[in-house]
Design a protein that fits this description.
about 280 residues, alpha+beta, D-amino Acid Aminotransferase, Chain A, domain 1, D-amino Acid Aminotransferase, Chain A, domain 2, 2 domains, 9-stranded mixed beta sheet, 6-stranded antiparallel beta sheet, 15 strands
Length: about 280
Amino acid sequence: MTNIFYVDGEFVAQDDAVVPVTDLSVLRGYGVFDFMRTYGGHPFMLDAHIARLRRSAELIDMPVPWTDAELKAIVLATVARNPIDEANVRIVVTGGESPNYLIPDDKPRLIVMVTPSIKNPDHLYADGASAITVPMSRSDPLAKTINYIGAIRAMKRARAAGAAEALYLDSAGHVLEGTTTNLFAVFGEVIVTPQDGILPGITRGVVLDLLEGMYRVEKRALPLSELLRADEAFITASNKQVMPIVRVDDHTIAAGTVGAHTRAIMARYREFAYGLAWVNNGRG
């Protein structure tokens, strides 16, 4: 089966989905994107992802001439053309053409890509995953741009170490976020998550809402030395949901097993995501 993408006003087969090499996304890496997955065939938290896409574009002075309603309709139409049980959905806004190959003409291109969701290995949730730390902080973490050079290099290091994620460490020794994830650390009945210098993930926001009434949450700086003393730790992302972390660099988190709090949060997140899909499909 061929995936169908939306590219600059047309629905095309994946192999025919192209943009000109003169587009500023190719020449200068000028573009923004957002990523989500579907549950029950419906894009999860679509409105929130569109809002973040627009905010990212504003932060890099890129116009988004489509209304939220138009963006939503295009995403849903693209998903409908791809009969996939569960899918990944990427919305990309490119810089478009430039007469001098630097300053945009303010005519961006819109791309929506729908591909099958790739399931993470079950053992990462049953036994926990490992992460490494890399010294890095992004210049504008609130903008989800197509420039992922730092993340790609960090994930190459993580893969070489057999880790599932690389966590960014700033010059003050604070852990910020992962290449595509947000971080949480559990200390007894208190949960800490970094607040500054990060991209506030949509999944992170859902988890924070779900934690209300369950735990005391502190949004603050998290030194690496403190993270290594945590009782439990986990990361969140659209394509990872809630994934437990039991090892960071050469240090084991607590007993090195998935803790009860993390298991409860994992279950509550899945219940919410699949329950929302049930409602969206008219069965709730």
